[in-house]
């Protein structure tokens, strides 16, 4: 429950910060163009702001999936010689050297 509330408020806080950054950028553009106009220069055209993209939700793994992943990584690491060469394996990629 605590993690849910933390994530909820953190998401709102990040959204508020992003909105504040967008507002400040617009204000800075307006002030810059105002100063340039006062000095007799034409206004500067700024590129379009990058739209934030939503990230895909990461799939939560179960403990047995995490353990299997760690064991597979340990077996891969154990297959490497001390010289840095890979030993011959029956499954998986084979070194081309």
Can you describe what's shown?
The protein is mainly alpha-helical. The protein contains 2 helices and no strands. The model has no long low-confidence stretch (mean pLDDT 80).
The count of strands amounts to 0
Query: What structural class do the secondary elements suggest?
Result: mainly alpha
- Provide the β-strand percentage band: under 5%
Largest sheet: none
Overall 3D form = elongated
Amount of helix: 55-70%
Q: What is the first-to-last residue Cα distance?
A: 53 Å
| Helix-strand topology string | HH
Q: What is the number of helices?
A: 2
The average pLDDT value, as a whole number, equals 80
* Assembly level: single chain
Give the arrangement of secondary structure elements.
Layout (H helix, E strand, L loop, with lengths): L1 H38 L23 H16 L19
Task: Provide a compact summary of the structure.
With 97 residues, this protein is an all-alpha fold. It has helices at 2-39, 63-78.
Keywords:
97 residues, mainly alpha
């Amino acid at each position: 429950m605590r993690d849910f509330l933390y994530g909820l408020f953190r998401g709102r806080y990040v959204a508020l910060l992003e909105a504040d950054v967008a507002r400040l950028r617009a204000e800075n553009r307006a002030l810059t163009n105002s100063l340039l106009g006062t000095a007799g220069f034409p206004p500067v055209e700024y590129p379009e702001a990058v739209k934030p993209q939503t990230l895909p939700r990461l799939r939560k793994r179960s403990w047995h999936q995490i353990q299997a992943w760690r064991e597979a990584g340990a077996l891969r690491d154990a297959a490497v010689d001390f010289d840095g060469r890979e030993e011959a394996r029956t499954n998986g990629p084979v070194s081309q050297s």
